[in-house]
Write a structure and sequence with these properties.
- The protein is of the alpha/beta class.
- The strands form 5 sheets. The chain has an 8-stranded parallel sheet. A 6-stranded antiparallel sheet has the order 14-15-16-22-18-19, with helices on one face. The chain has a 3-stranded antiparallel sheet with strand order 4-6-5.
- Strand 9, helix 9 and strand 10 form a beta-alpha-beta unit.
- The chain starts with 9 loop residues before the first strand and ends with a strand.
């Protein structure tokens, strides 16, 4: 891949709020909000999620035999009813130009394979003498979306089809592609062919792979060779059980995050979501504030890509404040050695390192009750001296010397330093130690 990044990608994706139905005006409203409020903090990518070619798209599902818009070579193009600037063959270029003019990057969602309609109509594959039906594979079909058939990668026309689609997207000015139905089951041939097609465009396009269910570390080398980021879970929604399940996944994957590729815990279902989405009705996300902080703390400490899913202009100010906490985002940008340190009962500890002796640690409780913890600074990989701040509140946390063993400093030996952390149910603290 030719698009490595030294910081995990950050942006907005239309899925959690608009599902398959997002419009050009809604994309631009979120892009303008991002440029004004979030871009200074590193949020720089706007992604149009699935079914942008379907004029009949609806909330809460997909349409069988949808009349997807295609060009003469079986390549999907935007529906001009929802994306008026795409009319007369302009594609996403005018929208991408508007997003770029705001200082942002533009991304789209794609599906593995070739449209069923292209196969039925036997559209010619650009650059070849074959038609879509010759390169299709109806034995390897997405189980949850009815639009596409697989590709037969024993046929050279399969690579030619991907090459032609990626050449079109590059001509539109696409900077980021979320390629779906790639990882469950693991579609090694498609992943490699898609990455090859991106390389051949000559444009640095970030490649994000989905959906990530049951993804094994055995795939790590292949993923690093071909993708910028890859999902490690199925779709994540505004439920604590979805967030909690990613603790174990990130513990496996975070030590492997870096410029060679970023394990992705999925979009952040924060703020105003469900407006016309695949799941649920219009709502402010149902996570409690402590659960929101735990979600963001885990994603930041794991250095996951951050793709917020709420409609930015209509999200509450507290959501925007959480997304623009500069001290927290500094951990996301600059930390290294990120790893789980401890997990026992409800208590989970993470640690990471920075420059000039700075260290970070996160303290989580997965329990349904408040947790009052006395922690040995050494268990957080903190020296006994220095200064500790909690980054969400900005409060200083005392490092208390322990002179004798007692119940008050249980688990902390004399000569050590203790930190007292009080957490609400499902809460987290994000700590920075400065020498």
């Amino acid at each position: 891949m030719n698009n490595r990044t030294f910081r995990p990608p950050m942006g907005w994706n239309s899925w959690d709020c608009y599902g398959t139905t997002v419009t050009e005006d809604e994309v631009l409203a979120n892009a303008r909000f991002m440029a004004e409020h979030l871009l200074p903090h590193g949020w720089d990518t706007v992604v149009v999620d699935i079914d942008w070619s379907d004029p009949t798209a609806r909330s809460h599902g997909y349409n069988a035999d949808a009349p997807l818009r295609m060009d003469d070579h079986g390549r999907l193009v935007p529906d001009p009813g929802r994306f008026p600037s795409s009319a007369d063959g302009a594609g996403f270029r005018p929208l991408a130009d508007q997003v770029h003019a705001l200082g942002l990057k533009f991304g789209i969602h794609t599906m593995r394979g070739i449209p069923r309609r292209a196969v039925a109509q036997r559209t010619p594959v650009m650059g070849t003498e074959v038609t879509a039906d010759a390169v299709a594979d109806d034995t390897n079909v997405c189980e949850w979306n009815p639009d596409m058939l697989g590709l037969d990668h024993n046929h050279p026309g399969a690579q030619a089809y991907y090459d032609s689609t990626l050449a079109l997207y590059a001509a539109w000015g696409v900077d980021f592609i979320k390629a779906d139905d790639m990882l469950w089951p693991y579609q090694a041939d498609d992943v490699a062919a898609y990455a090859r097609a991106i390389e051949r465009t000559g444009r640095p396009i970030a490649l994000s792979l989905s959906p990530g269910r049951d993804l094994s570390l055995a795939r790590l080398d292949h993923l690093r060779r071909h993708a910028t980021m890859w999902r490690i879970c199925d779709d994540l929604w505004d439920r604590w059980e979805d967030v909690e399940a990613n603790f174990a996944r990130f513990a496996r994957w975070a030590p492997h995050a870096g410029p060679d590729g970023w394990p992705d815990g999925d979009m952040l279902p924060l703020g105003r979501i469900g407006l016309r989405a695949e799941r649920g009705e219009p709502r402010d996300d149902r996570l409690t504030r402590p659960e929101r902080i735990s979600l963001l703390t885990l994603w930041v400490m794991a250095r996951s890509p951050l793709m917020v899913g709420g409609d930015l202009p209509s999200s509450d100010p507290d959501t925007i404040a959480l997304l623009t906490n500069a001290d927290v985002l500094d951990v996301h940008a600059r930390s290294r050695g990120n790893r789980e340190l401890f997990r026992e009962g409800p208590l989970v500890l993470w640690g990471a390192e920075g420059d000039d002796g700075v260290r970070w640690a996160a303290v989580f409780t997965l329990g349904d009750e408040p947790l009052a913890a006395v922690l040995d600074a050494g268990d957080l990989d903190f020296p006994a001296g220095g200064v500790v701040h909690e980054l969400w509140s900005g409060d200083r946390v005392p490092l208390e010397p322990v002179t004798t063993q007692s119940d008050a400093a249980r688990g902390v030996a004399p000569g050590s330093a203790a930190l007292r952390i009080d957490l609400p149910p499902h809460g987290a603290a994000l700590l920075r130690h400065t020498p």
